[in-house]
Design a protein that fits this description.
- With 363 residues, the protein is mostly helical.
- It contains 16 helices and no strands.
- 73% of the residues lie in helices and 0% in strands.
- It is globular.
- It starts with 16 loop residues before the first helix and ends with a helix.
Length: 363
């Protein structure tokens, strides 16, 4: 048993961290990140994606360095660094952040469903379906959640090859010119892709559920690298398929590209794309809400199902009383930039404080 109190039978092999990281990063942001990135960095957007990916790798290294000093999860690390009361305050911020991430993913996907498929179906109806499904996945424990992440990667990987269909209508001169943006523009572009690459930070909650967790670091890096390369590929395909102006005006470039696919047995291929994407989105929501409810359990010593019920009610009420577009705008304003800055600045600070305390103990 470690400080987070996880029995060995509930842990997963280090190999599965690849799927936990990759499935959480690959979410609804992949459907729309190109438009904002094209506005800020244009044909140099792929550089911003690679830079954002590099930052993700640095933060993953920091997370594993923290837990090499303080075994357990982020709750243990916060208490070790700041004491009980201040540490619990920062832990509450993490719980709130995980909840907002899960809510943002759900409302974003429901918005996609409204626009592309079922405009008249109310948001709360989709929320109920997703939340009930998430609850039943949670009842199976973290091993079941890991299995869902594993299956989501395997079952949705074919969607990547659909983009090759767009290559037939591509203009490769759209990739030029290259390196014509300032370093400041490139840095601004990294923020545009950050919501797409977020999700790796959930490691701070499920780290104690990994067998021999130190050996899982390479798998976490491989998962993040896979997401980064896929994001670069999607952006490059979007650049050659759309003109610069079209890309800046298209809300969901990835879905719009799939709409050109023609098959003899189906007229609207994007219906399959949107529906199949639910497998990815359910994984995103499940991991995010599990992390939030697990943090609440660790902090207040209650059964994990109770905070999960409470968070589900909050999400449902949000979908009932706040129009999904308005709530989505508010949530994204919270996550970007405040949530991103919180993760990028807090984790290095936490590592510095923990390292200083460790050195003082040696003295």
């Amino acid at each position: 048993m470690n400080q987070a109190g996880v029995n060995e039978k509930y842990k997963v092999s280090p190999f599965y961290v690849f799927f936990l990281v990759h499935s959480m990063q690959t979410g609804v942001g992949v459907l729309s990140f190109q438009r904002v990135l094209a506005k800020s960095t244009g044909t140099d957007g792929w550089i911003s994606i690679l830079l954002a990916g590099l930052i993700v790798h640095i933060l993953i290294w920091i997370i594993y360095k923290i837990f090499s000093i303080v075994p357990g999860d982020i709750i243990s690390a916060n208490n070790q660094a700041f004491g009980k009361w201040i540490g619990n305050f920062f832990s509450l911020l993490f719980i709130l952040y995980f909840l907002i991430i899960g809510m943002t993913v759900m409302i974003s996907y429901i918005n996609v469903i409204h626009v592309w498929m079922f405009e008249e179906v109310p948001s709360w109806a989709f929320s109920v379906v997703f939340l009930v499904l998430i609850y039943f996945i949670h009842t199976g424990g973290f091993r079941t959640i890991t299995g869902i992440a594993f299956l989501s990667v395997l079952l949705t990987s074919w969607l990547l090859f659909v983009l090759f269909y767009a290559m037939e209508y591509s203009e490769f001169t759209n990739l030029l010119p290259v390196f014509h943006h300032t370093p400041l523009d490139i840095l601004k572009g990294t923020r545009s892709t950050s919501l797409t690459l977020l999700g790796f930070e959930m490691i701070v909650m499920y780290y104690p559920f990994i067998k021999n967790p130190k050996s899982s670091q390479k798998h976490a890096h491989w998962g993040a690298l896979s997401t980064t390369l896929i994001t670069v590929f999607v952006y490059l395909v979007s650049l050659v398929f759309y003109s610069q102006k079209q890309l800046e005006l298209t809300i969901w470039p990835t879905l719009s590209m799939t709409s050109i696919v023609e098959l003899p047995f189906i007229q609207r291929f994007e219906y399959i794309d949107v529906s199949w994407w639910a497998i990815i989105i359910i994984t995103n929501m499940t991991i995010a809400l599990w992390s939030a409810s697990r943090g609440f359990k660790r902090l207040f010593n209650v059964q994990q199902k109770y905070p999960l019920w409470g968070m589900s009610i909050i999400i449902l009420l949000t979908n009932i009383f706040v129009f999904d577009i308005d709530s989505l705008y508010i949530l994204r304003k919270i996550v970007d930039p405040y949530g991103i800055l919180f993760i990028a600045l807090y984790l290095p600070l936490l590592l510095v404080i923990i390292s200083i305390k460790k050195m003082r103990k040696r003295i």
